[in-house]
Structure formats: structure tokens, C-alpha cells
Amino acid sequence: MLKLNRKIAQLKPSKSVTLMAKTKAMQQRDKSIINLTGGEPDFATPEKICEEAYLQMKSGFTHYTDGPGIPKLRQALAEKLRTENHAPYQEDQILVTPGAKYAVYLAVQAVLNPGDEAIWLAPGWVSYPSIIEASGGVPVAVHLKWEENYQITFDALEEAYSEKTRLLIINYPNNPTGKVLSPSDREAIAQFMRSHPDVLLLSDEIYEHIIYTGYEAVSMASVPDLFERTIIVNGFSKSFAMTGWRLGYLACSYEIFSVVMKLFQHTISCTSGFLQMAAVTALGCSEDTEKMRREYEKRRNLLYEGIRRLPGADMLKPEGAFYAWVKFDLGMNSEEVCNYLLEEGKIAGVPGIAYGEEEKVCVRFSYAASETELRRMLKNLEALLTKKKR
Ligand SMILES: Cc1ncc(COP(=O)(O)O)c(C=O)c1O
Predict the structure, then answer these.
(1) Distance from residue 130's CA to the centre of ligand 1 (Å)
(2) Across the chain, what does the average pLDDT equal?
(3) Higher per-residue pLDDT: 102 or 18
(4) CA of 387 to the centre of ligand 1 (A)
């Protein structure tokens, strides 16, 4: 038998990526399936961004570029982080990566030694625990609760802490719950970080521009005494409908940066120049981002009003991102609910277990889908749930 890397071989496949591919394949055979599994904007990348990439490609900007990112993009990102996020990173503290996912991977690899623990908040993005494991670390989940509105408390963080804790990973606006950091969440995190000076904070802010009326996305890097210990991860996939471009970035202290850079140089070298020039254009596309945000907000309202009145279902009101986090009271666990919805109602969602949800009763539906599809989903769901109640 082949002897392969046990750490990597033992990783579980990403449930959401697998389900997305499986549902797409099913849709080829059955066009009536409503695929709400993907975390992928259904909008086209804004025209201006595509034009810029095309022009740059035509003009020959198609060779290796400065490793950590072209100066124009790093300068623009430093300006954005300073003015929008109140996180005063210099341009040479910013690394442009092929997607935010790889930025998370680089940061976690750079920070953890074998056996070190990293705390992540569940329900949370499927890849955090696997990336921690791939880096030789031990993921420690803090299970936030539906009944407590997924509030973060100092006590819950403290309970997960041990002498081996080196990293706390947070993601707000959150995938899958749609929560943003409330002032009390921020205070709990700050208190925890102040109690443990050798713990670093990784803040994944990839949904920061998809934020609904009445809420704001505040970065923990804006807290002056936490700034040096915070690594921001962000990217272009969600805000600018650029998932396929594979462009993200991280910003961190010089000390962390020098370690991250070594791994980056030996694994990626650089990201493409014409894509980075288009990313500079993207940063100036706030009107397009706002148009998409308004559309997501309309869809959020449609689903929230539609689902909450159905028997056996309850939905958390998303404050940001584009996911409906729905709790089902059908006497089934979330995987059974997903199978039932797919087989009987042609609705495909991702079971809460994929996000480490403890209660196993929630399903995530992405509303990065057309209003027509969402209305069809509501109709099918209503028919199923009312039949079930009878
Ligand atoms: C919380 C979170 N972080 C990171 C990513 C990855 O983004 P990218 O496409 O930039 O790799 C996703 C994508 O689903 C996500 O939901």
C-alpha cells in the first residue's frame, strides 16, 4: 500500500464543495432542481473589471509579477484597509493571494506548530478545521447557540483556551449564520485577546460589503491594541462577483508577514498581473457592489418573510452575507432534512453539520440565486411543510 501524507489523507472532503458539484450534476438530468448550495454570486463580474483584465492581457502584462502583489494593488488595498476598516497596514504588509481560502491556509500554516490549538467558532466555514489540521494544528470549536442568537461570550472562548492555544479564527459577516459582530461580541473577543497576549487573531472579512441596512461590519483590526496581533483575510470573490478569478489578500504584522512570504514564494510565486490590475479597478466599483448588495437585501427579506411563516421552520434574520440559516423542527437531523427537501421538494441546501453545527437541525440555503428560483423554493417548501404538518 502507498504510504501517503496521513495528515492530508485523513482530511474530510469539503461538504459544501462536494454537494455543490453533486447538485450541479443532478441539475443536468433534472432541470427542476433548485440549487441553493453554492456560496457564489449569481451576478456577472462587472464589465469594467473584465475590460481592464482584457486590456492588460492584450498589452502583455502576462508574465511573473512582483511576488507579494503589484505595487498599484497593494497601495490601493492599504488605502482601503486604512479608510474603510481603520486598520493602518502599510502596503508592504499586504500579500495578494490566489483567493481568500489560500490566504487563510498561508496564515494558519505560518502561525501553528504541530500540536498547537486554533479556536474557531461553530457554526463556521467548512474549511477552517481542515486547514488547521492540514497545518498540523488541532481545531477547537466553540459552539455558539441558536437560542443565544449566536452571541460570542468571553466565558465560551475561555473554556476553549488551553496553554496550547495560538490562534482564534473569526469570520464576520458570517458564513453560514449571516451574523455580524455586535458590540458585545467585539468586547468578548477583545477581552479574550487581552487575557492571552500570545494568541493571534485571524479575521476573515470576505463578506464585508454584503451587509444589510442597520448593521455595520467592524474589523477587530481597528482595535488599536489588537492591531499588531490581527491578520485580516479578505478577497474579491464575494463583493465583486469574482469567484473564478481566484484573488484574495491578507494583511498582518511584519513579523508574521516574513514567515507567510516564505511559504508563498515556494508554493505560488505570485498571482497574475492582469488579474491584479483588474482588481485595482474592482476596488473602484462600489456602485456595482452596492447594486448587488441591495439585490441580496431584497432576497433576504423575501426568504425571511416567506420561511418564518411556514410550520416547522424558523430562520435567523441575516445581517450580512447571502445565506439563509434555517432551523427545521421535523424530527429529522439536518442531513435527513436536506435529503428530504431534495427528494421531495427539489430544493438543495447544505446541512448544518457541514459547518460543525452542534444541534444538527439547521440547513444553509444560499440566496445568491435569482428571485424566480427563490420564489420557487418557497412554494415547494410551503407545499412540503404544510403536507408534513397534516
Ligand atoms: C468565510 C469564507 N472565507 C473564505 C472563502 C473563500 O473565498 P475565495 O473564493 O476568495 O477563496 C469563502 C468562500 O466560500 C468563505 O465563505
Answers:
(1) 14
(2) 95
(3) 102
(4) 37
Say yes or no: 263 and 281 in one domain: yes
Mutate to test the pocket of ligand 1, among 101, 106, 204, 240 (most ligand atoms within 8 A of CB): 101
Spatial contact of 385 and 311, defined as CB atoms under 8 Å apart: yes
- Please say which residue of 228, 259, 285 terminates a domain: 285
pLDDT, tens digit (0-9, with 9 covering 90-100), for 45-67: 999 999 999 999 999 999 999 89
Ligand 1 center to 84 CA (angstroms): 20
Q: Write the DSSP string, 187-233.
A: HHHHHHHHH-TT-EEEEE-TTTT-B-TT-----GGGSGGGGGGEEEE
Calculated CA dihedral for residues 341, 334, 244, 30, nearest 10 degrees: -20
* Domain match, 84 and 222 both: yes
Please report the pLDDT score of residue 27 as a whole number: 86
Using CA atoms, how far apart are residues 342 and 35, in angstroms rounded to an integer? 9
Question: Considering 235, 263, 285, which residue would you say is the last residue of a domain?
Answer: 285
The answer on 148 and 241 residing in a single domain is yes
What is the residue range of 226's domain? 47-285
Does 207 have pLDDT greater than 80?
Answer: yes
